[in-house]
Amino acid sequence: MGKFLKGILGGFSGKIGNVIGAVWRGVDYMRSLPRKSNKPATEAQLIPRLKLKVVVGFLRSINDLIKLGYQSYKGKQTPMNAAVAFHIDKAITGVYPNLNINFPKVVFSKGHLLRPSAPGVESVTPAKIKFEWLNNAPATGSSTAATDMATLLLYNPDKEQFVTAEDVAARSALTFTLSVPAEWIGDDVHCWMSFVSVNRKEVSDSVYVGTTAVL
Questions:
Q1: Domain range summary for the chain, segments of one domain joined by +
Q2: Helices (H), the chain
Q3: Thinking of the domain 117-213, which architecture would CATH place it in?
Q4: Residue 92 phi/psi, 5° resolution?
Q5: Can you count the helices (H) and strands (E) in the chain?
Q6: Is 1:13 a contact under the CB 8 Å cutoff?
Q7: What does the pLDDT profile of the chain (215 residues) look like in tens digits?
Q8: Are 109 and 204 in contact (CB under 8 A)?
Q9: Using an 8 Å Cβ cutoff, are 145 and 137 in contact?
């Protein structure tokens, strides 16, 4: 049953007849119910559906990183919606129906701070991943600072699992070693990193650092 919110000339929520009303971020809107069709979906219809499924399935596990990394997207587009749109456009590889995430194209953070400079990654025993980078913070005249904190992201495609680490080391620290699950030993992992300001109001673009086999 639908419910009028502001009288006959205002918005309403719920279903009335063949119309659905709702409020999104303070904006009233309504749409008609979709018509059912017995026709099978065409490949042109299935491709975007599968892209959406692949991207959402990958990003939902790092929702907290997306909220922080895409925080500059305001208004009617949520951080997750912005990230999904970006990855559908830029980070899908393969030919339908074999579509997958293109890991080097993944960007979990987009902002104005300087990106990590000359990042590198290597496996060290036991089950640890060492990240390294340069301190590229200017002395003056920039919001980028030596105190910016590193965020690290690892993904194990064999296990379909992430390891995330936020605010683990300052830009000036130049390195950080992250522990991963022991059951990852022998698996290849994909690695990314970004920076966030101390007040967490500004971020850098994340960068793909590469892959390494867990020792």
A1: 3-32, 43-105, 117-213
A2: 43-59, 63-69, 79-90
A3: Sandwich (2.60)
A4: -110, 135
A5: 3, 13
A6: no
A7: 444 455 444 555 566 666 666 666 556 666 667 677 688 889 999 999 999 999 999 999 999 999 999 999 877 789 999 999 999 999 999 999 999 999 999 999 999 999 999 999 999 999 999 999 999 999 998 999 999 999 999 999 999 999 999 999 999 999 999 999 999 999 999 999 999 999 999 999 999 999 999 99
A8: yes
A9: yes
